[in-house]
Amino acid sequence: MTRASVVKLEDVWVSFHETLALKAVNMDIEDGEFLGLIGPNGSGKTTLIRVILGLVKPDRGRVEVFGVPPDSLGAKHHIIGYVPQRSHGDWSFPVSVTDVVMMGRYGRIGLFKRPSSLDREVAVKALEDVQMQDFAQRQLAELSGGQQQRVLIARALATEPKLLLLDEPAAGIDAYGEERFYELLKRLKEEQGLTIVVVTHDIAVVSAHVEKLACLNQTLYTHAPPSEVITAGTLEKVYGCEVELLAHGRIPHRVVEEHK
């Protein structure tokens, strides 16, 4: 049974100062899909996320999120939750965990309005969803990288999204924490009916958790289950180098050599 489309891109091209970022990208992300977006550095992954968010307007092509262009969502834009790369944040800023999560409500209540009791309840529930309620009054700077990422997910969940976009969310987290992180995302997807897109470089780990992989290097090479992607020679085309096939748990994965 075909699920409804949440994100649809048709022949999307994006360039910055004559440098091509995305070329003829066609993609259809279905409702409830758990998607890993992979590709080498500079392949356009973050640009694609920003296109879906409506922050980057394509030079040509069509983008729809929940059936309309993303910049037409208006007051409903909160149905897209976004977790940016941790490297883009100032982790020394004196702010509590609760305050960070409440930031996720401002898109709904307005910057200059006081949060209601409902807003506070949603923020508390978001922290509970990521198992960080015991850290509510702690300073964000005091937390580990994995804990900070959970707080950022809680902030995104506080918007009450239907689509959750995460850009390199597990960067800087150890292997054990990374496994727990993906298990958290899988649980949230199942419990809240979310559609989730995760940008990552870790092909091995993400392949064991997501339903599909999208391989991007300016253009979209494939969008299919991990078992198909890693055995079809697609990764060599995307990364531009040879890869070695290894067995790893439930799903075999490929180790990618440093590409030029």
List the helices and strands and how they pair.
Layout: E1 5-16, E2 19-30, E3 34-38, H1 45-53, E4 60-65, E5 80-83, H2 97-102, H3 106-109, H4 117-129, H5 145-157, E6 163-167, H6 175-192, E7 195-199, H7 203-207, E8 212-217, E9 219-224, H8 226-229, H9 234-239, E10 243-246, E11 253-256
Parallel strand pairs: 3-7, 3-8, 5-6, 6-7
Antiparallel strand pairs: 1-2, 1-4, 8-9, 10-11
Helix pairs in contact: 4-5
Tell me what the structure shows.
There is one protein chain. By secondary structure, the chain is of the alpha/beta class. The protein contains nine helices and eleven strands. The protein has helices spanning 45-53, 97-102, 106-109, 117-129, 145-157, 175-192, 203-207, 226-229, 234-239, and strands spanning 5-16, 19-30, 34-38, 60-65, 80-83, 163-167, 195-199, 212-217, 219-224, 243-246, 253-256. A six-stranded mixed β-sheet has the order 5-6-7-3-8-9, sandwiched between helices. α4 (117-129) packs across α5 (145-157). It is globular and about 50 Å long. Mean pLDDT is 85; it is low at 243-260.
Assembly form of the protein: single chain
Strand order of the largest sheet: 5-6-7-3-8-9
Shape: globular
User: What is Rg?
Assistant: 18 Å
Query: Would you tell me the structural class of the helices and strands?
Result: alpha/beta
Strand content: 25-35%
Helix content: 25-40%
Number of helices: 9
- The low-confidence runs, each spanning 5 or more residues with pLDDT under 50, are 243-260
Count every beta strand, where a strand is a DSSP E run of 2 or more residues.
Answer: 11
| Alpha-carbon distance between the two ends | 42 Å
**Average pLDDT taken over every residue:** 85
Main sheet specs:
6 strands, mixed
Helices and strands, in N-to-C order?
EEEHEEHHHHEHEHEEHHEE
